[in-house]
């Protein structure tokens, strides 16, 4: 028996060892940088503490019984099958009442506040950004500023084939990040062109589904400049694991400068109306590299890992009616 | 529990039977066949065909067994009660099935269409969508609906009266009056059959004249799902009623033992009630 | 036709088919129960094999054991096979074997239907995995790859594998409905004289509630799947906004079924707990009535909380609040159940044979699963947990830590009754401790992964998740390997090795089944016992 208890102890330690590798408390979310993220972190810490206490009480109770009431120590069983005296009834009702109080007061009230805060997407919103998911990339629009671009995974194929990637932002890097100002409330609208995707950035504390044909909204207000990374969080087919989200938060002047640059670039691109053949070819090549090469090889044949879909041999998996 | 149960306490457990397993594997063939067929693989047809044939075979043999056991006097009050309870719970599961589809109808009318219509016109692909019922959705082709006071109203009358006639038939069965029983049961079957013919005609008109098809957005989809599933149930009901008629011609059932008859009539009443709801919520409102 | 058949009675066992044909044609509840359990065990191994593939792929980043498409197919089949192939059939097997014995019934009420209900399962499993084979001969692109939740429009877009999965769901649904109807009717109609509802053993109660839930929710999934099939092939627009439909409608339909489903999985093993704990505590069940009422409360609540799986799908505030608070309410009746289990142990005289160990492990592990469920119920914090590995860890604590532990406890508890042989206690204890260790290593680390921000259902991941994934995978290999002890123990007893078991098996074991020989005769209670 002693040996067994040692075993359980050992196994617990074993699961905890890798945690030491984390500098921060392994129970905590990524560093929060928005009001929502701080609120979820607070709620999370509170709840985890509560359930840890509940678990310890329950587990302690169990351990006590297991040690104290074992037949091998000659303990004779009691015969009760329900509480009898009023005191026993009260003692039985106590844990249940505690659970109710925890549910609806200790946990219920902060949760209520958080729900309302999260739902308040429009009040004081200084900027609107539209996020569109599609298989398997994100598109960002700044409707009022007339800017729009697509953000693709940019981790190199060599890294992905290597078996031992070294890139510190492996699978979390994109060619064009979403750029947002710091300290302003940004209203984020989400939609999708094909299947459901979900836009998740842990340090913003938000995860919102992008549903095709519908609009969903959420909001962020970022505390400080920096680069924040997240991933798509709803299974959307083979490339679901490969559509990361990168947000670059800039202080207002930097953001304004970026905005101006982006607007000029957009205007220039719109100004070019006729393209010569070499220019077209070049544009095509660029587009291929951005959009198609992810899945298809230039030869049109079966492609490199991890995507194996071939254009040449493609027979639509199902006949569309 | 009644006295004769307490007296015997012997429950009839049938001998091993090959038909359930045969039925299962036939259904598997059917499923594989359909899975291939809907994806455009012609081989699916063979699986489907063989599956259907052997399902039919197993069904006929199985039911034959049950009827023979019933006629052979193996079923007493106790077994009878099991069948009754079983049928009741089966019908309850059917209620859930239809309730789900009505829930879908409700969701479309009260949630998804208004939601689609209320999206921020700036950002949605369908800024001009109004979302009024009946709707083919923001990108659907327009259509007209079936006039409830035409065929559907007639069909309502037919089904309601068929509910009455089957009750009448039961009344005569309990009095062992064969001729009247056959008459009222026959009438029920006839009413059910006419209902089906009219329903088929209505579907045909919906497709050819009203432009109302399965593809007519949520309205079309829900309309055909609900009426189609109901129509399927009526078909099954008519087949079962006809089987009863055949058994009556063969002299089965007596005034006290006729569970099969009752089960089918419960089923028929259930189908009847569903139709009333359909008439109100699908055709009328 | 009727002239050809002369004797329908079963009263002598002569002339009954033998060999494979016996199992195909049987109408005997014990045979059918055993078939269910063997099928469930096979599926557990298959689902476990898929689980090991998952962990094999995730063992280090940039691994190429599985392609992303194959990975999606494997996780989907893992989920479906474990839930519908392993857990539900095994608990249904217990019900078939034990319910008639426990209520003193001659057999199940509708024996032929019972056989049909079972034999629909192997075809369903075949239909589900067949696309693997079809792909080899150039048909389609493999089995369903949408996740076990089959969210539209991904499932509308998917290949033929999705159709096969839909047909498998039809078969499974038909099977579950038949089994449930049969159990309800058996319990209502075939109890021994004198056994009132409130005298029924709790396992019987738990399956009564399970059946009610199945009848109340499975048809919804069947209807939803049919709509999905129509969207895929017949041009309807249930799940597409262009026609006025809504992808989220699928989520509602799925979870209206899916949430009660988790209690469908849980109930039978909650019932098993109330048989094992009293036996090894040598004390009567604590709070019988309270447990029955909790079952009712859980069942009733379970059908009105489904959208807590959809907090990030976009819901009005009122919806968020309603589903959050109603979900939290379930912790109250479940807390009562826990309390009753503790009360049963309290001041007993405990001994720790393998079934008891697994029962205690169940309380601890399911406690963790349930308590983390409570955390997930928070609509806003769920923005962080949803579809992360925190969720994966929650539901494995709830699914493996609860039902699977309970089933294993039940297997060890009734195996001697069913086979007439004792299993090896020493190996049983090894099995328990290795399972506990392996399980906690595998899934405790996943809580941390989720908190650190790792999404589920991805075949490859960022470097900060690498160490914990390695730990989790190693744990999973240990966990998988230790299940072979279970297989060995079952095979050994079934093959007739080991000490013969007495009628009572465990000293102090209560219940009608322990008044019968081990193993019980082929036909029990042809004359019903009278319960006083
Ligand atoms: C058997 C299975 C099972 C069970 C019983 C539960 C039980 C619960 N689950 Fe879980 N759940 C799943 C299986 C299960 N779940 C699965 C499979 C999923 C994910 C599906 C998917 O997306 O693929 C899921 C997902 C899931 C979500 C969705 C999260 C998301 O997608 O974002 C939520 C949210 O509220 C939730 C909540 C709960 C709650 C509140 C309970 C409650 O019933 C729990 C109540 C129990 C308690 C509160 C414990 C009480 C105990 C004590 C007080 C003492 C204990 C201590 C000791 C004795 C040591 N679950
Ligand atoms: C009852 C249900 C159940 C059970 C018991 C398990 C058991 C296990 N699951 Fe399961 N799991 C689910 C239900 C279950 N799971 C569901 C519903 C999902 C969601 C799917 C989805 O996303 O859609 C999921 C998803 C899921 C994931 C997430 C995948 C992802 O999102 O990317 C992972 C990853 O670690 C995982 C791992 C495991 C492991 C290691 C076990 C282990 O406990 C398994 C241990 C058992 C064995 C290993 C069997 C032992 C046998 C052998 C070793 C013999 C080898 C084989 C042969 C002889 C043929 N599961
Ligand atoms: Cu997009 Cu997952
Ligand atoms: Cu749930």
How much helix is in the residues of chain A? 40-55%
Secondary-structure element order of chain A, N to C: HHHEEEHEEEEEEEHH
What oligomeric state do the depicted chains represent? heterotrimer
Which structural class fits the helix and strand makeup of chain C? mainly alpha
Strand content of chain C: under 5%
Mean pLDDT of chain A: 81
Proportion of residues in helical segments of chain C: 55-70%
Low-confidence stretches of chain A: 1-23, 299-321
Q: Per DSSP, what share of the residues of chain A sits in E-state strands of 2 or more residues?
A: 15-25%
Largest sheet of chain A: 5 strands, mixed
Number of helical runs of chain A? 6
The CATH class assignment of chain C is: Mainly Alpha
Q: From the coordinates shown, what is the CATH architecture of the largest domain in chain A?
A: Sandwich
- The total count of strands of chain C amounts to 0
What is the H/E string of chain C?
HHHHHHHHHHHHHHHHH
Largest interface: A-C, 113 and 109 residues
The unreliable regions of chain C are 1-13
CATH topology of chain C: Cytochrome C Oxidase, Chain A
What does this structure look like?
The complex is a heterotrimer of chains A (321), B (285) and C (532). Helices cover 40% and strands 18% of the residues of chain A. Chain A is of the alpha+beta class and 321 residues long. In chain A, the strands form two sheets. A five-stranded mixed beta sheet of chain A has the order 3-2-1-5-8. In chain A, strands 4-10-9-6-7 form a five-stranded mixed beta sheet. In chain A, helix 2 runs antiparallel to helix 3. Chain B has helices spanning 3-8, 19-37, 43-71, 77-117, 151-174, 178-210, 217-249, 259-284. The longest helix of chain B is centred in the middle third of the chain and has 41 residues, at 77-117. By secondary structure, chain B is mostly helical. In chain B, 74% of the residues lie in helices and 0% in strands. Chain C has 17 helices and no strands. With 532 residues, chain C is mainly α. The A-B interface holds A 130, 143, 189, 191, 213-215, 318-319 and B 39-40, 115-116, 119-120, 122-126, 138. Bound molecules: heme-A (2 copies), dinuclear copper ion and copper (II) ion. Dinuclear copper ion (CUA) binds next to loops of chain A.
């Amino acid at each position: 028996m002693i040996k067994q208890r040692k075993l359980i102890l050992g196994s617990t330690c074993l699961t905890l060892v890798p945690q030491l590798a984390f500098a921060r408390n392994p129970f905590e979310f990524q560093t929060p940088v928005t009001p929502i993220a701080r609120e979820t972190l607070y709620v999370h810490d509170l709840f985890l503490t509560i359930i840890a206490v509940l678990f310890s009480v329950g587990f302690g109770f169990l351990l006590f019984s297991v040690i104290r009431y074992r037949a091998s120590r000659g303990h004779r069983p009691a015969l009760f099958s329900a509480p009898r005296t009023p005191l026993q009834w009260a003692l039985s009702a106590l844990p249940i009442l505690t659970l109710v109080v925890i549910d609806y007061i200790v946990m219920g009230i902060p949760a209520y506040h958080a729900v309302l805060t999260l739902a308040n997407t429009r009040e004081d919103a200084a900027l609107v950004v539209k996020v569109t998911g599609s298989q398997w990339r994100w598109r960002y629009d700044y409707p009022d500023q007339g800017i729009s671009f697509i953000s693709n995974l940019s981790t190199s194929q060599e890294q992905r084939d290597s078996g031992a990637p070294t890139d510190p932002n492996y699978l979390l890097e994109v060619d064009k990040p979403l750029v947002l100002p710091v300290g302003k409330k940004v209203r984020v609208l989400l939609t999708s062109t094909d299947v459901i995707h979900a836009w998740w950035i842990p340090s913003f504390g938000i995860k919102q589904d992008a549903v095709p044909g519908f609009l969903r909204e959420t909001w962020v207000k970022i505390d400080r400049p920096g680069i924040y990374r997240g991933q798509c969080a709803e299974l959307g087919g083979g490339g679901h694991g490969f559509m990361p989200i990168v947000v670059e938060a800039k202080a207002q002047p930097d953001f304004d400068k970026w905005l101006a640059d982006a607007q000029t670039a957009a205007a220039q691109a719109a100004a070019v109306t006729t393209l010569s053949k070499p220019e077209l070819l070049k544009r095509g090549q660029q587009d291929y590299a951005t959009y198609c090469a992810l899945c298809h090889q230039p030869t049109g044949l079966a492609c490199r890992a991890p995507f194996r879909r071939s254009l040449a041999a493609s027979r639509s998996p199902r006949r569309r009616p | 529990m009644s006295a004769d149960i307490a007296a015997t306490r012997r429950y009839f457990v049938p001998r091993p039977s090959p038909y359930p397993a045969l039925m299962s594997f036939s259904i598997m063939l059917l499923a594989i066949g359909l899975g291939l067929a809907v994806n455009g693989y012609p081989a699916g047809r063979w699986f489907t065909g063989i599956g259907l044939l052997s399902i039919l075979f197993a069904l006929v043999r199985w039911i034959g067994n049950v009827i023979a056991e019933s006629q052979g006097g193996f079923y007493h009050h106790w077994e009878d009660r099991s069948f009754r309870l079983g049928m009741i719970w089966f019908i309850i599961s059917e209620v859930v099935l239809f309730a789900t589809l009505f829930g879908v109808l409700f969701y479309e009318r009260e949630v998804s269409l208004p939601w689609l219509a209320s999206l921020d016109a700036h950002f949605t692909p369908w800024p001009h969508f109004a979302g009024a019922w009946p709707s083919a959705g923001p990108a659907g082709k327009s259509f007209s609906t079936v006039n409830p006071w035409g065929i559907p109203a007639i069909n309502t009358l037919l089904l309601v009266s068929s509910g009455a006639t089957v009750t009448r038939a039961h009344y005569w069965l309990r009095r062992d009056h064969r001729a009247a029983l056959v008459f009222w049961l026959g009438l029920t079957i006839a009413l059910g059959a006419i209902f089906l013919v009219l329903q088929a005609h209505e579907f045909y008109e919906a497709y050819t004249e009203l432009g109302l098809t399965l593809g007519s957005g949520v309205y079309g989809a829900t309309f055909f799902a609900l009426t189609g599933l109901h129509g399927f149930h009526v078909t099954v009901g008519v087949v079962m009623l006809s089987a009863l008629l055949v058994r009556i011609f063969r002299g089965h059932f007596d005034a006290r033992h006729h569970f099969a008859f009752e089960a089918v009539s419960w089923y028929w009443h259930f189908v009847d009630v569903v139709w009333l709801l359909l008439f109100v919520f699908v055709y009328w409102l | 036709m009727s002239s050809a058949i002369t004797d329908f009675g079963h009263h002598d066992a002569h002339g009954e088919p033998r060999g494979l044909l016996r199992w195909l044609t049987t109408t005997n509840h014990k045979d059918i129960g055993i078939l269910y359990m063997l099928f469930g065990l096979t599926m557990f191994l298959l689902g476990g094999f898929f689980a090991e593939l998952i962990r094999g792929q995730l063992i280090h980043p940039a691994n190429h054991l599985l392609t992303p498409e194959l990975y999606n197919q494997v996780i989907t089949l893992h989920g479906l096979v474990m839930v519908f192939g392993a857990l539900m059939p095994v608990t249904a097997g217990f019900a078939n074997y034990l319910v008639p014995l426990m209520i003193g019934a001659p057999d199940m009420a509708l024996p032929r239907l019972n056989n049909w209900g079972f034999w629909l399962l192997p075809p369903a499993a075949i239909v589900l995995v067949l696309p693997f084979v079809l792909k080899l001969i150039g048909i389609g692109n493999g089995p369903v790859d949408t996740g076990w939740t089959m969210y539209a429009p991904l499932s509308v877009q998917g290949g033929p594998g999705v159709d096969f999965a839909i047909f498998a769901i039809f078969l499974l649904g038909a099977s579950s409905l038949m089994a449930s109807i049969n159990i309800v009717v058996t319990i209502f109609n075939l109890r021994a004289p004198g056994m009132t509802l409130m005298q029924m053993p709790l396992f019987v109660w738990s399956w009564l509630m399970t059946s009610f839930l199945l009848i109340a929710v499975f048809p919804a999934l069947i209807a939803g799947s049919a709509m999905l099939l129509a969207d895929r092939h017949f041009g309807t627009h249930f799940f597409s906004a262009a026609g006025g439909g809504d992808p989220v409608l699928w989520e509602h339909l799925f979870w209206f079924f899916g949430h009660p489903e988790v209690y469908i999985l849980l109930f039978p093993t909650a019932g098993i707990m109330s048989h094992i704990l009293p036996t090894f505590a040598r004390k009567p069940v604590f709070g019988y009535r309270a447990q029955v009422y909790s079952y009712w409360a859980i069942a009733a609540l379970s059908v009105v909380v489904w959208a807590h799986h959809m907090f990030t799908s976009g819901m009005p505030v009122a919806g968020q609040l309603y589903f959050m608070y109603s979900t939290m309410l379930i912790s109250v009746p479940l807390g009562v159940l826990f309390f009753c289990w503790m009360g049963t142990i309290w001041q007993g005289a405990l001994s720790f044979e393998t079934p008891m160990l697994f029962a205690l492990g169940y309380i601890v592990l399911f406690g963790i699963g349930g308590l983390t469920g409570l955390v997930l119920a928070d609509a806003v914090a769920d923005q962080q947990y949803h579809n992360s590995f925190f969720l994966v860890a929650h539901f494995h604590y709830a699914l493996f830590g609860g039902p699977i532990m309970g089933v294993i406890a039940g297997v060890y508890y009734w195996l001697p009754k069913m086979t007439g042989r004792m299993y090896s206690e020493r190996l049983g204890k090894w099995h328990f401790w290795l399972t506990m260790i392996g399980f906690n290593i595998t899934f405790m680390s996943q809580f941390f992964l989720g908190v650190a921000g790792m999404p589920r259902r991805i075949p490859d991941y960022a470097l900060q998740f690498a160490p914990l994934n390695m730990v989790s995978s190693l744990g999973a290999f240990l966990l998988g390997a230790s299940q072979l002890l279970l297989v060995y123990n079952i095979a050994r007893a079934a093959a007739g090795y080991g000490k013969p078991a007495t009628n009572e098996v465990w000293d102090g074991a209560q219940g009608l089944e322990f008044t019968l020989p081990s193993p019980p005769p082929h036909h029990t209670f042809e004359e019903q016992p009278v319960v006083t």
